[in-house]
Amino acid sequence: MALVPYVDNPLPALSKLHNSSAQFRFANRDLHLSQDWKQLGVAAVVWDAAVVMCMYLEVGQVEVKGRQVIELGAGTGLVGIVAALLGATVTITDRQPALDFLSANVKANLPPDSQGSVVVSELTWGEGLERYPAGGFDVVLGADIVYLEDTFVPLLRTLEHLCSDSTVVLLACKIRYKRDTDFLDMLKQPFRVEEVHYDKERDIHVYKCWKLPAKRDL
Ligand SMILES: C[S@@+](CC[C@H](N)C(=O)[O-])C[C@H]1O[C@@H](n2cnc3c(N)ncnc32)[C@H](O)[C@@H]1O
Fold this sequence. Notes:
CATH superfamily: Vaccinia Virus protein VP39
Protein name: Protein N-lysine methyltransferase METTL21A
Number of domains: 1
Mean pLDDT: 93
Low-confidence stretches: none
Number of helices: 7
Radius of gyration: 16 Å
Main location: cytoplasm
Shape: globular
Strand order of the largest sheet: 5-4-3-6-7-9-8
Number of strands: 9
Distance between the termini: 52 Å
CATH topology: Rossmann fold
InterPro entries: Methyltransf_16 (IPR019410), SAM-dependent_MTases_sf (IPR029063)
Subcellular location: Cytoplasm
Largest sheet: 7 strands, mixed
Helix content: 25-40%
Bound molecules: S-adenosylmethionine
GO molecular function: methyltransferase activity
Order of helices and strands: EEHHEHEHHEEHEHEE
């Protein structure tokens, strides 16, 4: 089942999404991610935002080593895999139809001694949030997850649920449409949002966000 419709004749710049695999080197390891655009659509290809997020994590400005990390809308799992290789304990999440493919990529790319630090789990934004500890994560990661207007409210609710006052949220975003900046405006109500990196070649913005203290009625 395709998670979203796809086209058979993509622009040349998008043709890499039709390859059956994508290779990277992060955290001193060669990673081979399987891709399957035709079967699973957006969840089964590695998006540039994920690559930029991994580069940003490698630099270490946001420390993930020893931290409890959750990745939302993980797709192939590249970001969560790299976070685990950098020493994090990671919950890698996506919608149910994406999970088998995601799990296979995680298994194929983590050495045996890192497999125990990763859990792959269903998280459809806004649903079943009670299965995840409120404010229970040090770092929340999301690469290219801001693109569907219908999901903006549940995505925001999910971020608010997962974050404590000390949680850092990192979002790597391709800003394609005005609605994407509308989400950032929505996010700025409960979170402080700072752009911390821009990858010009791939046109990807990385935002770091912290939950603002709750406003008290006077
Ligand atoms: C553009 S892909 C990005 C995948 C991956 N993060 C990357 O950058 O390569 C968007 C991801 O968000 C997931 N997604 C979309 N809507 C979702 C929802 N309502 N709840 C959870 N995940 C969702 C999709 O399944 C997909 O994996």
